[in-house]
Amino acid sequence: MKNQLSFFDRKVYAPEPRCIAQKYRISLIKEESFAYNFQLANVSLAVDFLKKHLKLHLEPEEVLVVLCLDVQLNLNAIFEVSRGTLNFAPANTREIFKRVLLTNCHSIIIAHNHPGGSAKPSMDDIDTTKKIKEAAQLLDIRLNDHIIIAEDSYYSFSQAGIL
């Protein structure tokens, strides 16, 4: 019989397990590499990287990415966090920091594009930035900037004094 044990010549039945715990291992899988020879030390360098290497300004729908930086502001990881519609990309804080924590980075730059042409942030962009900043502070990770990329312009939350 299932779960039957012998104990001093008596048959004892062990209870059915109520739940099963799974053991997991987390790992990063590299998809692609980008060669560059500068630190992302200012907004214009970050915007240049986002346009030249990620082509964020050419995406037909909103795409949210996170750039993970070391202490010297060298880029050590890039994640596409979400891909949305013409005017919205989900920016789930949990999804952002699930990736960020795997890289053991010192600071991050969040970026997304506005395919409609205007880099002006929406109220949702502003609220999301504040939420991400609060979460980053709790985790001792610096949010260097949130950059919105449009085809011919950009908006930097740090330059605007919001960060």
From TrEMBL:
CDD domains: MPN_DUF2466 (cd08071)
Domain MPN, chain residue ranges per copy: 40-163
Keywords (A to Z) from UniProt: Hydrolase, Metal-binding, Metalloprotease, Protease, Zinc
GO MF term list: metal ion binding; metallopeptidase activity
InterPro entries reported for this sequence: MPN (IPR037518), RadC_JAB (IPR025657), UPF0758 (IPR001405)
SUPFAM superfamilies reported for this sequence: JAB1/MPN domain
Any Gene Ontology biological process: proteolysis
Family: Belongs to the UPF0758 family.
Name of the protein in its database record: DNA repair protein RadC
Organism classification: Bacteria, Bacillati, Bacillota, Bacillota incertae sedis, Caldicellulosiruptorales
